[in-house]
Sequence to fold (422 residues):
Amino acid sequence: MPEYLGISLNIARPNIPISSDPSVVYALVKLVPDAMTAASIEAAPCNVALVIDKSGSMYNEDRLKHVVRAACAGVEKLSERDILSAVAFSGKAQVFIEPTPVTDHARIQEAIRQIDSVRAGSGTCMDFGMASGVEVVRKNFSTDYLNRVLVLTDGETRHEDKCRSIAKQEAENGLSFSTFGVGSTWNEKLLMEIADCTGGNSHYIRNASDADTIFDDEFDQITSAKFTNVRLNLRVVRGVTVRRVSRIYPEISVLQPEAIDDKSYEVPFRAINDEELLLFDLLVDPKPAGSFRLGRLVAQYDVPSENLHAQKTSEVGVFVNYTSNMDALGHINPEVMGYVDQMNGHILQDKAQEAIEQGEMARATQLLQSAQGITQRLGNAKLTQRLTEALTELQATGALSDDTRKTITFASRKTTRLEAAG
Fold:
């Protein structure tokens, strides 16, 4: 049977100095669809719920109008194999499109446009919308589908802990959330956490008119996923500690792997089509000279169109070499280190924002300058410019606006793709 999905592994510094102190090891893991076999299979069908905030502020700047238009355009990408439902929420939630096979695009698009007539109370309770979205997706839930709830809001919500609880519970059940924030007054940390912990995407719609492009990207992804229920398992040996697991591509986020036991960790991806890149930050105990295995990696996945379930990749060992040879110690994998730099840049700007919240402006400036140095070195001109603007604003006002904060946060999550080392 062909292996539809494979694993490749590279270590930033494959040679570790013999020392009495622990060493940090960065391992770049790629889940790579086989080009020949993946080209011959179809994407998995989708079971999608739109959950749209229709509180009063959504009528500012015609936000709701733009979102509805974007959602209708996204529906065009769905096929008769796919299922769509829709929920409106503000102070309460109301299902206004029950789960419906997408056999008639025009009829479903007209139903989406009827959101204006839905009564959903006052205030913003996103947890009610999320819970209703989960409920309608569950009516047709199948492991052979990409099951996703798309949540869009433009404001702060009540019951944030409940939102987090719903996301974590449904992540365990195999359902993912993608989140969309419109304008600048919503909690980006909350929306990113909901998406990241469930294997979905998080989007910043800076201007309502940008909704078309962003919805287009999301629907492109959910309608092209050929592998579902993807899970990467890392088992480490004694003396190895997993300090952090980060998703690097298609966007940067810090993940929370599920601990199977004290030595095994599982990272869920839910659904993928293209390559996925992960960065493992490991702390390893000192050892004598020689080659040592730190652990092993294997991924499990389904291929719905081929009726294949619980397929496994070949196992890949994680090895490093302990040596005192200075020439060997100087060998660095530039691709892996480039992604380490991008991850560090993202962490630096996140820490800078925490410093601003604590009133530590000098430290925030230093952190943003360090992040800017990384983006310049990597040639990311767009993010470098965003950070320059943030530094100028911080110096002038002693703070960052909501828009600037969100802009640099989401820009720093966009990966600059690097060439593999030859």
Remarks:
- The mean pLDDT is 94.
